Amino acid sequence: MRAKQMTVRGYAPNGKGGVVKSKGTARLPVLEGQSPLGLDVRKPPWLKVRSPGGTNYLRLKRLMRGQRLHSVCEEAGCPNIGECWEAGTATFLILGDVCTRACKYCAIAHGLPTELDWDEPRRVGEAVAALELEHVVVTSVNRDELGDGGAAIFAETIRQCRRHHPGCTVEVLIPDFKGSEPALRVVVDARPDILNHNLETVERLHPWARPGGRYWRSISLLGAAKRLEPAMPSKSGLILGLGETAPEIRQALEDLRRASVDILTLGQYLRPSAQHAPVARWVSPDEFAEWKRVGEAELGFRHVESGPLVRSSYHAAKQARTVHAGGVGEIRQIVDEPSEDDVVPAASAGERVQLVQIQPRRRAANG
Prior knowledge:
Oligomer: single chain
Helix content: 25-40%
Shape: globular
Strand content: 5-15%
C-alpha cells in the first residue's frame, strides 16, 4: 500500500468566522493499482440532486436561524437536504458546531469549542413542536474535552423533545464518548427510540480516517447499548468510496451484526473540500443494491438503507416505525485501546490537550 500526499492549507466553512486548518495531512491509503479521483472529476449522473429552495426548506432554515440551532444537514453538506427539509424533517446538531476531532471525510469544523449551551435542549424541543415533526434525529459534534462527552445534554434533548411534542419518536446519532459506559448509560436511560453510532469505514482505514476514533470501540459501544436496553433498536452506517475492498466491507458488516446492530445505512463518500480525503471510486447503484441484499438476506440486519445518496437519517422516520430490536448480540462489553490522538477532558489538569484550533481569518488589505 502506498500513500499520496497533498498540500493542506485549510478551508473556511460557510458561516464560520475563521479558517479551519486540517489536522495532519489528507493522505489516502491507496491499494496498488488504484488512483484517487481528482476534485475536477465529474460526478456520475446518479449523484446529481436538485438545488434546495422550496417553501418548507426556507421555513425550516428560518426557524433554525431564529432558534440559534444547527443542523448536520447544513454543517456536513448533506446532498439530501432539499428532499428532507421539504418533507419537514431535519437532523439537529447539538453541542455546538465545532468538533474536537478531525475525521478526514467530515465537513464539520474542528477545533476547541468555547462554550456549552445548556439551554440548547429546550430550543430543540420547541423547534420540533413548531415543525410538528413525527420523528426527529439528534446528533452532535464530538466534545472530547467534556467529562461525559456531552451525554447529559443528549439525554435532556430527548426529554425536551418528548415534553414539547409528545408522540414524536426520537433517534439519536451519538459519538463514541471515548468508550465511557457511564456516559452511554445516561443516553440509554433517556430511552431514545433508536440509538445510532456510525462505524463510518472499514478496520484497515479506521486509524487514518478517524483520528481519535477506534473500530472496535465503535462496534462494542453498540453492543453494550444493546446489553443495557435489548428492546432499543440500534443502527450504524458506513460511507463507501474511501478505498475499501468488498471483503473488508463484508467483514465490517459481520462485525456489526456480532454487536446485534439492527439497521444499517450505506452511502457514497463525497469529498467536502481539497483538504479532505480524496474519493477513491464511485460506487454504482447496483453495488449498493447488492450490499442491501447481502445485509438483509445473508447477515440478518432488520433493515438496510443502501444507495449513493443515503445518509444516516435518510428515511429514518419509516425505520423508527417498522424496525424492532433483535436482542443482545455476541459483543456486549466496550473494548477500547487508548491512543495519543485522544483528547483528554479539561478536568485532567496538567495534561496536554491535542487539538487543532480555528485560525482567525485575516482581513483583506482593502477591507
